[in-house]
Amino acid sequence: VYDDQVGEKRAVQTLSGGESFIAALSLALALGEVIQQESGGINIDALFVDEGFGSLDANSLDVAMNALESLEGESRLIGIISHVTELRDNIPDQLQVEPAGTGRSRLKILHSA
Q1: In this structure, how many other beta carbons lie within 10 angstroms of the beta carbon of residue 100?
Q2: Which residue, 32, 38, 53, 87, is the most exposed by fewest CB within 10 angstroms?
Q3: What is the helix (H) or strand (E) element at residue 36, kind and residue range?
Q4: Comparing C-alpha atoms, which of 80, 29, 26 is closest to residue 53?
């Protein structure tokens, strides 16, 4: 992995949890772009990110959210599965799964105004 802050390569094993998540997210986004450009018609119109945000500090969380928000308007669905409460304020349309007791769950749909 190339670390732009220090201007040199780093072994993947030296990355923190947050750095690993950002690197994996970057790789997923880049691979999606390459596949679409090189495949001759395959359109990847959905990306689901399952957890990972909990390992990010506030600055890294902003970086990750900005990267995902930059895809808005490109006809892509971005699904984020997370327990991080700070994300709720930044995500306008949400499906929240809440416990309903006795092993059941309730789905709550929220749309931004």
Answers
A1: 10
A2: 38
A3: helix 17-38
A4: 80
